Input
Amino acid sequence: MELGMIGLGRMGFNMSQRLLDDGHRVVGYDRAPSQVAALQREHGAGAATSVEDLVRQLGAPRIVWLMIPAGDPTSQQIGVLAGVLAPGDIVIDGGNSNYQDSLHHAALLKEHGIRFMDVGVSGGIWGLKEGFCLMAGGDRATFDMLEPLFKTLAPPDGYRLVGPNGAGHFVKMVHNGIEYGMMEAYAEGFELMRAKTAFDLDLHAIADLWNHGGVVRSWLLELAANAFASDPDLAEIKGYVADSGEGRWTVQETIDLAVPAPVITIALQMRFLSRQEDSFGAKVLAALRNEFGGHAVLKADTDADAKAGA
Output
């Protein structure tokens, strides 16, 4: 099969390479011409200089896969595609879009006779080797038509039509919310073990051990073992944790649907906490303890080592 890939970042580039390696034809486009040139030079992809050029290089029915940032960039690109594609063509959004945006995009493209699938993609930078887990939202006929692409991109049993338009990105949103909770639990457990200095625990060895039959074994734990192997104290990493949106959307859905999800909610809040070098809320707590109980407080000019040990 052939398709156009718009967005050749870490995910889009690796997905294109996997498709090309399995004999599919890929025409790539990215705002960075160097990425397009690299995909052409290293893997034999077609190269486009614009979205319009990419569409011209594809045969009907055209398939265009987006791997670009969610929000305005994706909405703007879909608006452009609505004007240059023809009835019967297919647009796939593989980014981390909000499922409500995907519902809007599906309706917009339908007005032009263009089919749409929202496909949540998981696998990160390891997807090139291991395959990408694909959660597709759309109609069965379009899914069946695209199945050869999904089969190439995913590991065995790693792709599925999970529901109608919007469902793919909704399932991926919840997937990432669960990921937040799992990562937070691992982080807290390893911090607790590191604090037990009397046992001089080897965190890399323990992470590896748990992955051999432990109930908490997982790919995330394998990645933790890799991280501890290269930097046991994670001294080269700043404890600042960003979030790309899915965790926030998941928590908002729990509120809208009145579904309790305290673990995911707290995991999101802990990411916010990681970004505060000097929390005003913590200052309020210290001040209150001092006011009601006379507990000692550290002054603002106390050195960093003293603060860390408090």
Summary: The chain is about 55% helix and 10% strand. The first helix runs from residue 10 to 21. The two ends are 61 Å apart (CA to CA).
